[in-house]
Amino acid sequence: MTDSNCTMTIDHALLKALRYTDQIEPATNVILCLAQEEQSLYRLRQRLLSTSNALSPAQAYLTLYDCLFRHVSTALLNQGYQITSQQPHQTLRRIVRQSAPDTRVQQMIAQRHALKKATSTLMCKDAVETLTRLLNEYDIRDAQACQTLCLLPLQRIVVSSAKSSSV
């Protein structure tokens, strides 16, 4: 486990490749952009903690995926780059593949797209576990939120489904 807040370093060769494909660009006004990312993370975490409007596991997954995006953006900014609008989810995928197998990262992104587009139920345990693992690379608090708000409810659904099908 990492400290509560950690900045990951992105490999120089990967930065060069992302720059070549226009998926990242040199950051302008790094200090302002870092402050905006921190503010976004703060708002996302407030949404997770809100007791007046509790999130479903699917909504929590989407919020925590956004947190991961903010962490990756912050890591890029700390190295002088920012994500462009050129395939941002593929950019995220290429960066986080340093910490998780590509097939798991693809599942995680596919789960996000399914939740955004059509499916309203979080169903892929592997996607949640991958998101938890990646969040842990950046901030243990976000990883713990993912376990509590997404993984535990998903495990309860699987257990209750198994019980009802055996009856």
UniProtKB/TrEMBL annotation:
Upper classification of the organism: Bacteria, Pseudomonadati, Pseudomonadota, Gammaproteobacteria, Moraxellales
Native species: Psychrobacter pocilloporae
Protein name (Swiss-Prot/TrEMBL): Uncharacterized protein
